[in-house]
Structure formats: structure tokens, C-alpha cells
Design brief:
Strand content of chain A: under 5%
Oligomer: heterotrimer
Helix content of chain B: 55-70%
Number of strands of chain A: 0
CATH topology of chain A: 3 helical TM bundles of succinate and fumarate reductases
Distance between the termini of chain A: 48 Å
CATH architecture of chain B: Up-down Bundle
Number of domains of chain B: 1
Shape of chain B: flat
Shape of chain A: elongated
CATH topology of chain B: 3 helical TM bundles of succinate and fumarate reductases
CATH class of chain B: Mainly Alpha
Helix content of chain A: over 70%
Structural class of chain B: mainly alpha
Chains: A mainly alpha, B mainly alpha, C alpha+beta
CATH superfamily of chain B: Fumarate reductase/succinate dehydrogenase, transmembrane subunit
Radius of gyration of chain A: 17 Å
Amino acid sequence: MNHRKTLEPMWWGLFSAGGVVAAFLIPIHIVLLGLAIPLGWLPGSAEIFQSWIVRLYLFVLISLPLYHWAHRFSFTMSDLGLRPIRKPLAILCYGSAIAGTVVTAWVLLRI
Amino acid sequence: MTRNRPDPSLLFHPRMPANWWLRKRTYFLFIVREFTSVFIAAYLIVFLVQLYQLGNGPGAYQAFMGKFASPGWLGFHAVALAFAIYHSLTWFYTTSIVIPLRIGAMVAPRYVFTLLNVAVWLAVSAAILAIYLIW
Amino acid sequence: MSERTVSLKVTRYRPGQDSTPTAQSYEVAYQDDWVVLDALNFIKDHVDGTLSFRWSCRMGVCGSCGMMVNGEPRLTCSAFLREFDSREIRIEPLAHFPVIRDLVIDMSGFLDKLKSVSPWIIRDTEKDPSEGEYLQSPKQLDAYHQFTACINCLLCYSACPIFGLETDFIGPAALALAHRYNEDSRDQGSAARWNAINDHNGAWQCTFVGECSVVCPKSVDPAAAIQRLKVDTAKQWVRSVLLPWGQK
């Protein structure tokens, strides 16, 4: 079996993992931090972010769906007419996701 | 054995119209589904900025969070939530097509897989709320 | 009492004469038990013998008579005139394919793609006939049976907007058949199909629009086959990265 040197399986795998994380976990966080706390339904405490377990959870919560976006967005843009610039667009999207992962780690480390 | 192929110079090659995704309801909903990823990514950026402000000290964090009560930001989060929920529901539907749920020798109907995922989603969401409140 | 008629607005394309397809309308008497194919054959036999289209079994098993009926890919032998409320039915060649003439499309591209997935049982070692047949349990049969139903009618390719945008995409039927053979317990040839599947224009081009499975007249569910191929391929890829030794 000649395993061609394509990384597509990896990007698709990250897309899937990001999709699972986004599907199960993102809505409640939007409710919590974007609606419930600003509207005063729930107390806004910053204590919880001090915990390392929470920061690890947040790292996965934020970085994985970035790869979900990168994969989906580059394919969708290609389908909507940007097919000629598919390759540079893909590099831009996956690159942004990788950059986003680094930024996420840095932001979480400095809390 | 060579196959007879039509003369390529005489073929008519159709072109996809640029508005192909507006011509059929299923194509439009497909594009909406794909765009949920944009709203999720947008929310994640906002979340990251929020966490960045945390690192700038309690004053900066409180000032930043104060902004979220404005109609503009509430509107943003409401829209992001709507798209995030659409992502979740379409995700549970599409994964039900990929993963056959086997119970003994039988395969359960797809909606069973979807409903199970919805139940887990609601349970996990409740658990996160509980953890946040108890912390 | 005047006879009810239905108007068929049919695409005409004469190679070498027309630069682009045009539409020609034919009026036929409505019959409750007729399918679109009956109307087309009536036109060819009694009205206009120059109209060209493919058909064969007229009972939904050969896959020859696929066309766009009111914008939807259908087997015209299974599309009843009574399904259509309006007095005009649009008949066009299957979408996304080059047109040879009138309603006849060029399917040679598809045949190349089909060949590229080696759609036959591949074995490392053959059993001698005296050893008897290959046995398969009902469970083993279940693993691939629905994907054997493909009649190569190409309706799925016409429904797939991704194929419409990128005609090098290997497409739903070819991938469903690749999966059919990979899942067959008698087959040992998944390595031979790897390159065709694990290509940017293979399974990875699919974004799971899902329309292929909606239009399939034999309930093959190519969309499910493709996503399962992605899972299997991704798993194989991870294995090849984590355990690079021991590859065939």
C-alpha cells in the first residue's frame, strides 16, 4: 500500500473532532458567557479560570473547533466560486487555526 | 479493447451557475450548515479576547464583561447561539447516517442515534452549568 | 370533451450544428398510466424520430434512462406523468455531464472513475474450485449488501453540486462501489483502492451535501458509504503514522 503523502485524512480528523466538541459544548458556553452572565441571570465569577483543569478544558474547547472552521470554510469558499485559489486559501485557513491554537495556549497561560 | 469515445470537439459542456446554491432548498440549507462554522469561529475569537482581558487583571475583565450587556453584543451572542444550535442538530443528524447504532443483531433507526446525542448534549450542558455554579 | 394533453419541453442539441442546447416542445395525449419514458418513446415513434435518448429495461433496474425531469434527476421509466400537476414537463439531459446529443450524456469519465476503484473481488490467494465456495454469514453480507444495489444510473452525480463544480471528483457511485468491495469479507483488495479513495478528488472532496442519497432510486445511500470511507481511511492513515512498520 503506497500511503500517499497527503495530510487530508489529518485535516478531516481534526475537522471531525472539532465538530464534536463544537456540537456538544459550544452552545452552553455561549449561553453562559454571552447571555446568562451579562443579563445577570447567573453570577459572573472569574475564580473558575484559575484552575489548571479548567484551562486545559478551555484549550481543547477553543482550539479544536478552529480546525473544524478551517476545513469547512476553505471547502465552502471553494464551492462558492473561489476554487481557483483553493490551495492558498487552504493554507491561510489551516495556518490561522494553528496560529489560533498557539494564541489560545498563550492566553490561557497568562491568566 | 479500446472503448469508443465521443468526439470531444462536438460535446456540449454545461457550466454550474454561480448562484447554484440558491436554486434548491437543500443546497441553500447545506450552505447555511457550512456557515455555522464561521459563527462558531467568531464566537471563539470573542471568547479568546475575554480570556485575554482576564489576564490583564480583574479591572480590565470587569470592564470588558460590562460591554456584553449592550444590545449589540447580546444580539451577536444570540445569533451565534442560533447558528451553534443549528450546527449541533445537523451534526447529530449527519453523524447518525455515518454511524450505524447496533443493538444485538439489529441496527436501530437513525433518529434513535440522533435523539441519544441530543440527550447527551443536554445532559453535558446541564453538567457544565452545575459545575460553574458549584465552583 | 377535449383530450387532456401534456407538453414535454425537451432539450435538443445537435452536435456540429448547434453551439448550445435549445428546447423543443411536444404535445402528447395524457395517459394516467404513462411514465415520462412512454411519452418520449411516443414522440420518437410518431412525432419526431430525430429525438435521441437512452433507455432499456423500462422497469428501473438497468440505469439507462436517467434524465432531469423538472430539474430533478429521475429514471424516466419511473417518473409517472400523473406526478406532475402542470401541463408542461421539462426534460433535460442529466446535469453536470457533457452532452453528446439531445438527452444523451457522455459517461466515459464515470467509467474511468469506476475502473479506478477496481470494482471486483481482489484476492491475495484464490481458492481452488475443488475447495468449494467462499462462505459468508448473514452478518457479513449485511456489511456491504445495500451498496451492491447500484445500477450506475448516475442520478447521484447529477444531484451532487460538488461534482457539478469539480468534474474530476470521483463521485458518489464510484466511492459507494469502492466501499462495497472493501466491506465484502471475500475481498482482500483495499490496498488497490487506496489511492483512488485517498485523493483530494477522492473521498476528501465530498462535503456531505447528502443529495446523492436522496435521489438514488435503489436506496444505495452513497453518502453513508463515502463518510464511512473517510473514517476508515483516516483510521488507516493514523495507523500508518503511528506504526509505520508492518505495512503491506
